[in-house]
Amino acid sequence: MKVKVVSILEDNYMYLIIDEQNRGAVAVDPAVPHRLLQIVNREGVSLVAVLTTHHHWDHARGNEDLLKEIPGLRVYGGDDRIKGLTDKVTNCQELKFNSINVRCLFTPCHTAGHMCYFVWEDDCTDSPAVFTGDTLFIGGCGKFFEGTAEQMHHNLTKVLGTLPEDTKVFCGHEYTKRNLKFALMVEPENQKVKEMLSWAKARDDDDKPTVPSTLLEEFEYNPFLRLSNEAVQKFTGKTDPIEVLRVLRKEKDNFKKPKDRVPAHAMMALEWGLLQS
Ligand SMILES: [Zn+2]
């Protein structure tokens, strides 16, 4: 199973999952359709489905154009607000596209209809993958726009946190460097955070993506998955995991985003990104 990682817009990712045996492909959050179609053509595959994590513009804006371009295309998602939705899915529903298997994981909080997608391939020894949209980021988690700390706690610990540890994590945005700066403030002594941050800085300098990570790695440096860790509890002044998570997210909301290195023309998109993700 091959996953093409495509950087789009200000800091979004869209993905193309390729079934190499059958030359079929499934896209995740293809918000820049003409670029997706270029890749589909270059790879010589046929796009059969779109998986949409949530209805926000920077994830779902490409669906209607793709439906016009590809007759018979199916667009899956868990929220009626998703543009171009053809098939509404529910928690634990499984989809199959030749040898590509998808389990839909309902993860409401960032939006009320957010879905993550756990993907694996038949007869393949590759690690499975999870497409987490704006629920779990590398080193962080999404804003609670339409949900509660209780819901995000369930999403992170019971839904995503119980997947196999070697699962590759493909998230919706490149926020890794900023997330790890926050993680370092939360856990100044965590060596894994330090190592990951310097690696993420080098990737950023080379203009390369930091996805995917693995769930096992996330458990080592992502404070939102380390709610029972002593340093994380100390930072938040709480011990109950849901309260720890609530305070962490609030502190992250107030954590200043560096404004350097951002060209003026990107500021509007950036402000929009701040609101939506
Ligand atoms: Zn979003």
From TrEMBL:
InterPro entries: Clx_II_MBL, HAGH_C, Hydroxyacylglutathione_Hdrlase, Metallo-B-lactamas, RibonucZ/Hydroxyglut_hydro
MF terms (GO), sorted A to Z: hydrolase activity; metal ion binding
Annotated transmembrane regions: none
Keywords: Hydrolase, Metal-binding, Zinc
Reported cofactor(s): Zn(2+)
SMART domains cross-referenced by the UniProt entry: Lactamase_B (SM00849)
Annotated ranges, domain Metallo-beta-lactamase: 11-173
Family: Belongs to the metallo-beta-lactamase superfamily. Glyoxalase II family.
Family annotation (PANTHER family): BETA LACTAMASE DOMAIN, HYDROXYACYLGLUTATHIONE HYDROLASE-LIKE PROTEIN
Name of the protein described by the UniProt record: Metallo-beta-lactamase domain-containing protein
Species assigned in the record: Coilia grayii
Higher taxonomy: Eukaryota, Metazoa, Chordata, Craniata, Vertebrata
